[in-house]
Amino acid sequence: YHPRVGEVRIRGGSTPSEGRVEIFYNHTWGCVCDNGWTLREASVVCRQLGFGSAYEAPPAASRVFGAGYAPVHLDGISCYGWEPLLGWCRNNGWGKMLCTRERIASVRCQIPKMVKNMARVRRIKGTLQSPGLPKMAIKHFFLRLQRVHDCHAVKLRL
Length: 158
Description:
Elements: E1 8-12, E2 18-25, E3 28-32, H1 39-48, E4 54-56, H2 61-65, E5 72-74, E6 106-109, H3 113-116, E7 122-124, E8 127-129, H4 135-150
């Protein structure tokens, strides 16, 4: 697995759906500063990872989720809320920040209903099936969910 520039992950939380925000750039994972960080920006991150919208964007993540060791890659992020990727939001530019390690962005993401009902989804003859849901949507969701869990060193076998 090789991350792409602009790929995001969340680290340091007690569940895979919460933590400080990190973004991949210049061959390294780096943090995002929380200057101007709101639920709009947090929701873009959550949706990029395959979760629902954010229900909280805790300020000063280092107190809640730890500061981590990664450099700060982005600051001054401002999203409209419709962007599919955090990298599409306005920002100060890669590596241009007015931020300290105490001001790292974080998220708490909503878990989609499909995850809560995973027990209904089963593997049948190499395909994923569930009552009332298209096969492709389920397969796409599981691939996105697997990518989220890979960032947390958890392997999801299908």
